[in-house]
Description:
By secondary structure, this protein is of the alpha+beta class. It is 57% helix and 14% strand. The longest helix is centred in the middle third of the chain and has 33 residues, at 455-487. The radius of gyration is 32 Å and the shape is globular.
Amino acid sequence: xxxxxxxxxxxxxxxxxWAVFALVPVQDRDFATYLRESASAKQSDFARLLxxxxxxxxxxxxxxxxxxxYTALKQIxxxxxxxxxxxxxxHVNLGPVKNxxxxxxxxxxxxxxRSKGRLQLGLDLKxxxxxxxxxxxxELAKMGDYERSSTLAQAIKVMSERVNSLGVAEPVIRAxxxxxxxxxxxxxxxxxNPDLLNVIRKPAVLxxxxxxxxxxxxxxxxxxxPPPGYEFMAMESENHRTGQxxxxxxxxxxxxxxxxxxISDARxxxxxxxxxxxxxxxxxxxxxxFGDVTSANVNRLLAIVLxxxxxxxxxIDEPILGGNASIRGSFTPQExxxxxxxxxxxxxxxxxxxxxxxxxxxxxxxxxxxAKLAFVIGTALTVLFILAFYTLGGVVAAVGMAIxxxxxxxxxxxxxxxxxxxxxxxxxxxxxxxxxxNILIFERMKEELRLGKTLPVALEAGFxxxxxxxxxxxxxxxxxxxxxxxxxTGPVKGFGVTLTIGIFTTMFAAVVVxxxxxxxxxxxxxVKRLPMFxxxxxxxxxxxxxxxxxxxxxxxxxxxxLGAVAVRGGSVYGIDFTGGDTVTLTYAKKVDLGQIRSxxxxxxxxxxxxxxxxxxxxxxxxLKITTDFxxxxxxxxxxxxxxxxxxxxxxxxxxxGPSVGHEIQWNALTSLLLAxxxxxxxxxxxxxxxxxxxxxxxxxxxxxxxxxVFVLAGRQFNASMxxxxxxxVGYGINDTIVVFDRIRExxxxxxTGTLRDIVNRSLNLTLSRTIITGGTTILTAVTLMVVTSGxxxxxxxxxxxxxxxxxxxxxxxxxxxxxxxxxxDRKHVEAHHDIAPKYEWAGSSRASE
Length: 849
């Protein structure tokens, strides 16, 4: 029998071992220590080199311009022309690059990445880099109000695409005032790797300028002044034979022929001879502009200039009228990729770096610690709850939960995703679904055991009969998650990605791991009894009898909630949606962030986010507090009274734009509507259209009631709340699918029962599962509410309200709507899908015909 399960054992062991190694190292390691341990050649020489780097770091700090180990080694390598990779890290493959400066930068970037923990935390949990970009005031002054605002909005969109391309890091990118953009990058560190800022600094104005006719590349800059209307520009390139950086000069027009805002696509391409070119595509307007420029300037050089830097000057061989061009040259793959990135920049205004900050977590350290404590307590209570009901089966479920979380985190680490608050919300729902899958299986096993079947037979039947509900519940949730990951941005996207991963890991943990463990225990006879505590097994509640009253009550709750939203108006939106004031404070004595929040709340300020920040390259730390519009100065006055010893002094108040702009709000709404439509289509396809209508009605009512309860509780919506609401949608549809799956089964098993009896029987049969699943989720939500504060507390409150509303709606909204849709007639249901009973006459098939 053991051979029968050997493939599954090998599969499970392989996945678990892979997951463990995928998460190692768990924490970030000191960069200098990691370098010392990783050097594979000339370790003693490298130790002396690190000592030189330490001396350089100390001298820079004494001079008030601190640098990191990364920067110090890079400077030493450039100064002494030391190839760090070749000398000390020959095991790191750096490719064909020969230039020492570039090789050192590539090596240090790679080693810095390896020194980090595999699973990175987001800015809301870990901190990172904050950069403020200033739009060129002279260029903005030439624009009207509408053009200025649209230009800044376009710049924000471009920066969002560039920063998001780095991975699922959930950056915050928002307008700050009328001419600035604030960017926060979680997990980044300019002290260890200043090149991280190149992604932000590089996007600027892209221009196509003509090179002076009759001139070309020059080895040195000519003496004297350039002709009127022209300027000397230098271009650096690597000599592929020697690896040296060579500088050539061009005489370039100061006025551009056209800008790059009409470029639709630019990408490097490799031809059949292994040579790299850059493919360039334009939109309709750009096609005309580029056609005019190239037609009038055949056999002239056209310089590609980004932010005043010359990147390339290809020759115009012929008029290019089709909107597609090819830039040829002896490019390396790295050079081709870099030039394509330059050409992909469509900004219409110059952006300069105004501020750079190394930011700490936006959650206080005490809040992060309490969130960890809440997770431990909540998980422990959930496990105890399951153990109380299913004894040994609960142990198996707990093992499945642990493996589920392990695989989720390992996949996130492998994909380069970051763990954030919305990601945690996705894991919470995943755990709820994971437990629910086990509960479904155990409840079906109990039913089989009550029929007198043996434990091995009940085990197989339990998995077989729970399978359809498990697969349908997970696939409907997958529709929601996939749409969020596809259309969502920021926290919505992060939630969708985490939930998508969690759905597949849940299926593996419940259907493969848990089943394998139970089979190894039950089928060989190691376990002969599987005690399980039963509740609500013989209920005969007439749910449909109370359907109309329940719908009226739900309608009243929805109306009250929407009325509360209308009364509170814009005050229901937090700073993420509306913007607010950011106050910069200096201090003589550091104040705990939790105490600042408590003092602000006591003074009547509802939304306050304090964070300590340190300017890049400085030892001076400041306190920044974000609050509602026009509340910055009053808040400072109250805090000065509350903490006189801190000597808080304001350095100014800035107005910030919403991090969740109109586009992000629209994407979130579109994601929600498409998810609901997708669920309706799936349920209608897998079940029947009436089921889809009932499921959609239940989810919409539960969603509106949850929002109403949230608003009535005096809470405000922020970016993470979008993910929390979608969390409720996923939980609700999963709950409803279980009930509908049982109705479909009972219609097959009871060919003579009325639709009313079938519906009520199905609701009663699944009631114990509904209560137990809801109880495990409530334990987690209540624990989070009691222990945590801030956004985690809001998410927990939403989930808690959502458990009650979705449970109520699956019992009293989904099934009554389904019942009324079919006018209470099972024949109406049978006419629309294949659950009609099939009768067979005794005898041959020909006789039955």
